[in-house]
Structure formats: C-alpha cells, structure tokens
Predict the 3D structure of the following.
Amino acid sequence: MRHIQRRIALLALPALVGSILVATGPAGADPTGPSAATSRSQPEDRESVRLVQIRLTGADMLDKVAAAGFDLEHGLRRVPTGIEGEAVVTAEQVTELTAMGVEVLADEAGFAWSDQADGGIAVDAAGARAVEPSNHQATVRIARADWFTTKGQGFLYVEARTTEGQQADPIVGMQVENDSGKGTPFGFARTMSRFVDSGQYMFHRNLFKLDTRPTRIQVTSSTGGVTTGVVSNWLENAPPPLTANPSYKSDFVDGYKHPQQLYSRAKEIARQYPDIAEIVYLPNQTNGYQRKAQAQLGGTGQAAVVVTSAAWGHEGGNDITVEFVDRPDANLPLAVEVTGKAVRVLLATDAAGAPASTATQVADALRTRSAGLIDRAHPYRTNEGSGIVAPTAGPVALTDFLDQKRVGAPEGEVPRGPATIPVLRIGKHRDGKKPGVLIQAQDHAREWVPATTSLESAERLVHNYRSDRETKKIVENTDIFFILSNNPDGANYSFYNFASQRKNMTNHCPDASADPAQRNSWGVDLNRNYRVGSGHDGYAGGSTNCVSGTYQGPEELSEPESKNIIWLVEKYSNIKFMMSVHSNGGQLFWQPGAYIADGRITTPRPPLGDEAFYWQSAARILSQVKAHRETVVTPENVGGSSDVLYSSAGNVREDLYYTYGIYAFGWEVGGSVYNPATGNWQGGSFQPEWTGNPELVSGHAETMEYANGIMEMFRVAADWGKDKKDPTSRLVPGDGKYRGPVDVRFETSEPATIYYTTDGSRPTLESPRYAATEFREPGQVFHVTETTTFRWFSVDSAGNIEKNYDPTKTDKRNNYRTATITIAKK
Ligand SMILES: [Zn+2]
C-alpha cells in the first residue's frame, strides 16, 4: 500500500522551502510552437521504397517531418549536430525531405561524433582555451563522466551543464580536459557540443575515444565557470552473465518468427512445462490481418473513382468486379446493374450519346445502388470528381492486395481475420504474490528482433529452471508475462507484404487517404495510443495524420492491442515491471518520455529514488548485454526517452508508470556496435540478416545479447520483491554548529526518495521531495544561511520506509530523521 501512495504523491509538485534553496534551473526557454499536421503523399508501392540515412537539426525538425507523414522513427540517435536516423522513403520523398532542410547523408556511413579525436588536442602554453575572464562567474556542473571500453577501445563520455547554457548571443562554449591517470595534470582540451532540444538548452556532451582511463576531468565554460569531477565506470567489471555457467542452456531461437510461430511455440511451452507456465489470452481480438477489397478506376484525375467493398476481401470482397459501361443511345440516365458479385454501372449519356456521368455521380450510385456490395466510393483523394467517367475495357476485379507476397516472404498462408493474442506466463508461484514483469515485444511490426529476443528469454527460463540455480530463483520469485508480438496483424503484413510496416492494420483514414496506393501507410502507431502525456493532451510526437508513421489513433486506447495492455496490468496488479521491447538503436529508456513542445514541458520527472533505481537497474541489465559480445549501450542513450531521443506522446511506458506505478522501461535493441576496423559506431537495422556478421550486424547476435539483458531484468524484479530492508539516509554535513553559511545535501544507502521539511512540521508524503539539482544530475545542494532543522524520511524503490516510520498517520514515536544546522550569529 505504501508503495502506491507514494506514486500518487509523485504527481504533486513539491513546494519551495523558505530562503535556503539555491536556484539551479536554466534560464527561460525559447518557446517553439508545435507544427501543424499536414497531409502528404506516401510511398505508392514497396518496390520504390528505400532506406536512407538522414540528419535533422533537432527535435523541432523531427516533429515537423514526422507530422508531414514521413516514416523515420527508430534507428534515431542524437549526434552533436542534431539527430541522425533512417527514413523509409521514395526518391520523390528524398527531394521533399531535402526541401524541408533535412540532410540526406551519403550511404550508410557509421555514426561518429564529429569532434571525436584520439588523445585530443593538447592545450598549448599560450592557453588555447576560449575562456574569457569575466566578473560574472557561471556555474558549471558535471552530470556524468563515464569511462567504458568496448572491443579493445576506451571511451570517455562527458555531460556537463552551465547555468549560462540558454544564452544564445554569444553561445556559451564549454571545454573538457582530462588527466591521464591518478596524479597527472589536466590536458587534452576539447570543445564540447551544446545540446538544445525544442528551444531548451539541455547540456553539453561528448563521447571521446581515449586509450588511457582518466581519473578526473575539468570542464570550463567560456563565461568563466570551471569545475572538476571524478570519472566513473560504465558497465565495466560486470559480474559474469548466467550464460557463464557451463551447464546453462541458451541459443534456442534459430531465425525470425512470424506471429503464428511465436504464438504456437508459446502454447507449446505452456503444455510442456505446466508446473511453471500457462497461457493467458488477451480479451480484445485484434482488428485483423484483413482489408476491404478495392479498385481505383479511371486514373488519378477528376474522372477517377475509388471503390471499396463492404465485405472483407477474404469474405467476398475479392470476388467483386466493377465495370463502367458505355451505351449507344442518347439521353440515358445513370443506372447500376448487379448480377451476383458483378456490378455494372451504366453510364448516363448526353444528347449526342456520349458518356455524361461525373465521378461524383458514379461514386454516389455505387454507394447506394450496388445491393450492398460497395459501401465506400468516392473521387480520388481531394478531387471534386467533376470529370466525366470513361467506360472501362471490361470488368475490374477488386482486391485486398493481401495475396501479393513480398520477395522473401515465409511459406504458407496467413490466417485472415482477427487474432487472439496469447500471453505466455512463467513463474512457479502465479498467485499474484510475486512481482510481475511484463515483456511486451513488437508493438511495431517491422521490429523482428524484439520478438526473437523475448522468445529466447522464455526458452532460457523453462529450459534452465531445473538445472540452473539462478534461473530457478528467477522462476520461483517472479511472475513473468511475455507478449511475444503485440501487433500480429502488422507483423504478418511486415513478413508477407511490406517489410517496413510499423503500425497495426486498422484503417482510420478519410476518403482523401483511403485509396489503395496509401495502404502501406494506414494503421495506428500502438505506442502513441495510450492515455498519459498523449498527443490528444497536446504532447509532441504523436500525429493526427492517419498516414503518418506516428499516427496516434482517433482517440486514446482506440485500438484493441493497447486496450489489452491496460486490461492485463489491471487484472494482474502484481505487475510492477515492464519492458517495451523495440528496435533498433541501442537505447534504454524510462520517464519522462513525452513533452509539450512549447516550453518543453515534460511529464513529471520521476522522484530521485526512482531515477536512481532506474539507473542502477539499467547498469545491471546493460552489463549483461555487454557480456555477450561487448556491445555497449552508451550513457547518452540511457535515461528519460524524451531527454535522450525524442518526445513520444501517448507511449505505453508513461501510462504504466504514472497510472499504475509500474517501473516501465523501453529499449531499442540492436544497432550502435563499435566497429574497431573503421573506428566508428555502426548502426543496425529492423531486420538485420539473421546470421550476418556476428560481430557487427546480426539478428542472432542481437537476440542472444539482449536476452541476457531481459534475464537480468528478471533478477532485478526478484531482488526488488525480496527487498524488505529499510533504506537509511543522512544529511551531509549533519547536525552541528557552523560559523557561516553551509552547503548541505542528502545521501541515501540505496536508491531512495527523501521527503523533508524545514518549517518544523512533521514530514509526510506531501512534503517536498528531495530533487536532483537538474535532470540527470545528483541531488540538489541546499545553501543554508540561518539555523535550520531538517526533518525527513526516505523511501526505497520497493516502498520500504526508513526506520519503519509511518508518514500517513500521526505516529507518536515521530521516528523520522532530524538534523539541525546551527549557524552562529555574527
Ligand atoms: Zn518501435
């Protein structure tokens, strides 16, 4: 109970305390309005579509381009000059992108920071640093200084802020220097990259290639601030993975799996291991791998007519033919004849005997007089339909286009119609008492590796349960729910018809976007269809355009696939962890994941205890990913998803965390592997060759390494469930007499959130929460200028409260913590 109450309190903003707080926030943002959604043309057929590497100047441009309907989600990563990624486009769209200011990069070059340098540039005796002496001393703070190695190469990642960062004229420069080990001097000054998002200064940051691990860095601002910091390890010296046990079984998945294969294996596992596994069926069937049958008659001009069957293609729509018939006599009225599934439109004639029906008239007649066979008929796109319809050469067959297999499609037929999604539940004690973990894969249809990664994790659990002690502990202490593909209709479409399909197959489009050439762009982005921080509430990153890659749907939870997730977490309220598995990009996310673009107002930042717990869990999970083949997910790709990538309005993670208090992770598996041969980071793809190059891009290698990470997430959940230990905390420096103003901060024994007062009142869950100085930074520092008593308690990530204090009731013991900072009078 305490746990839930705490999460509700999370949404309340802490009040400011007296005169003792140091203001730490950056200056006001330069507001940038959200861009309006506009309709645009989409790829007309799969043959002409290709994948290109693009670079955008920032999130504003990303929003604009996405709102225009371009499909460029995923594979995106921040670079010093903006955002780089991939776009699935036609040659014509490349021209449009260029016109919007998007840089289309040559080839599929690997990613590299532009100012990456081996060893860096030494500062010369004259002092090459661009630091002006200034009376105005800016404050510089180091948020991260992380060292990691991968494939024999060392890297230093630095993230630092200046309080003058928002300043635009002149733009503040920042430089970082590092030592070369303990006791060595600073040197190798390098310019840092300023990171601005939605008009808001975020921080400066860089990734540097280094051969020697530094112990300290020094960051200097051009406005005069300077600070030093200690370098930490990132994913170094991780404990051995479960696969290190020689008897441990792994490598079960032998190739990509379409939804039928995934679901049938899930059911088989439940049959083979009934003591630890079962199937839970989600209640809402999908809208189905199915389409209405269509034909577009008369080209694309004013005389064109787009016809759509009332029945699904496989339920008779595909048997319908439509014919426009010319008749020899003059002054005949428009008529429609229906024989079986054959619809003949007898065109009206004028006084000279020539055809005289407009496209609008023919469409109206088809809709109302086809004996129910045609329920949608209209002019092409935004045409008025004023052209005179020409007769057809004969009957034209309608089709749902689903029998057009793409090259390389798997054998067999796809079952048409709605699908029921099975959830594979694994756990020895499935009684709601063990912490539940939801692994949700393939919201996005073309992301094939998330499905194999999840299946591999399930296989490892059931095969090692009896033989491996660590696996047994997982199965006995957690309650795991696998949704191996949450978008089976779209996934089938990706396997069988259009490999780049992202969304589900529900067509919510109006007539202007409902012609068959648009069919590869219909559907709802399931990860924009949720209720918290949604596009409907004004958050950025969800589109109202039904053919956009990020179309959010007509309303929140409009789709059965998203309704199912809410049903599942409400029915199984023991679910406390979730991982939404996507590809590709090499990122691990949590909250905040969405913001309102104007002012860059994010969903509420998690309290410091949750933030620290997320970081701690991420380091555990990613260490195990690294253990497989040294893939490093770099720290600049870890954190709140709207901080490290972009705003995704209405994503599932925001809903599950803010509504249900579930630790909701998202990750982008695959991609971003360091290639020592080129010295660059090489991006991945949605469907990398299964075996491919095992050291670089390989669906198999990604499946194995990220399954390591999922297994570690289960261990995180098991440990969380067993955590009955209260956190401890202290004020540093603590109780005592000080001769002048003193800076104090809180420390905790483990990830925990502190609630405190300084006004003599009893601390409760409504008291101010100890916060980060600024996001991605450690806890704030209080500048205490007069005698102050702090009263506080801490709560850990499992909900344990320090000293078993009960903040909800009047607790006569009053066993919260106190410390008095006494400042001597002058
Ligand atoms: Zn995705």
